[in-house]
Each structure stands twice: as structure tokens, then as C-alpha cells.
Amino acid sequence: MTEFLEEAEALQTNMEGMKHLSDSLSTFNESFASWLYVMNMNALTTDWMQAPLPESFELAKKRAEENAVAAAEALKRAREEEEKARQARHFADQTAFTEMTEPDTTYMANLTTATGTTAATATSGKSGTAPKKKPGAKPKLTAKEKKERSMEIERIVSCLPLEFRGSDPGLRRNMETVIEGLMDAPGSTVKLPDLIKPPDLNQARVNKCLIALVNRKVVKKDSSSGTVLYAWMGIP
User: Fold this and answer.
1) Which of 166, 182, 195, 214 supports an S-S bond with 232, CB 3.0-4.6 Å?
2) Whole-prediction pTM value?
């Protein structure tokens, strides 16, 4: 009797599910039939055009003009931005060559003349004296001092913009040469021409490196005496 009762309850549940399904189908059939009837009436009462209207051509022409104007404005803005970037690069290049003042130019000319005179005297062989040691000769360093200097230069370069940190290997070598020149200079103070070593390390490269070091506050620029001097300050 217990099993019979359970089976009877299951049969009742299934019959209720069938009734619910029948009700759902009836509701769907009525809704679907109403939709088909509405579509049929709409097809009989509404005249759908099979070709674009004149207004459609005017709207398409208007949209094409608007797109052309927008494209022209975007192209104009792009050209203006490109021109600004070109002018900025040109200004940076011009600044690199205008950094040297008139006293520096005179000093460089005198230095070139003195160098040429010294070379001519040495070639002529008239003077029996030995050549004098250059005042700015690079001092010899021990292995420990070289290692310490290399570590200090690495710390300084790591604080500079990306182009000095390895993006441009040539510029990184120039920066290391400029830093060593500042460290080895008497009183750690030099003029811009003292660091020029053509052809690789020209005036523009030296000036670019010095500007980066001054901005990082590793080097101090002083022009109070009428001559631009660069003093080595070290890592702040």
C-alpha cells in the first residue's frame, strides 16, 4: 500500500505538469496567432517603399560632408602637432650650439692656437726641452678607485633620462666621458670647451650631457663671472 501511495502521488504530479504545459502552449498559440494576424493586417494597410527616398540621398550627402570636414580637421591637427614637434627638436638643437658664450669662444680659439704652436715647436726640434705635462691630465687610479668611480658613475647614469641609460649607447659613453672629465678637473670645475673631444664628443653632445646633469642637480652651472663654469656636485 505504501508503494502504491507513492506511485499515485508521482502520477498526480506528472498529470499536473502536463496540464501546466497544455496551458502554456495555449497561451503561446494565442499570442503567436495574434502576432501573425497583426503582421498580415500591416502588410495589407502599409505601403513599404522598395527604393531610397530623395531625403535618403540628401541625408547621405550631408553625412559624407560632415565626415570629410572631420577628417580634414583631424589631418590639420596632426600636421600642427608634427610641426610643433619639429620646431621643438630644432629649438633643442639650436640651444645646444648657443650655450657657449663669447668668453668661452675666445678661450677655445686661444686653446687651439696654443695647441698648434706647441705642436709646431715640438716638430721643429729647435727646443731641446721635454714637453710639459698637461695641467688637465687624467690622474692614474688604483683598481679600487676605478671600481668605486665606476659604481658612482653607474648610480648617476641610472638617475638620468632613458636615452642616457642605454637607449643610445653612444650617448651613454659620451655621458660617462663627461662625468669623468668633471671628476678629474682641478677643483671639479670646468668650462664647456674643456670637455670637447672631437669627433665623437662634439660641442652639441657635451652640452646635451651637461644640461641633463644640471637638471639632475649633479652639476652646478655658474655664469656670474662672465664665463660659464660647470662644477661637479655629486649625487645629492
Assistant:
1) 182
2) 0.40
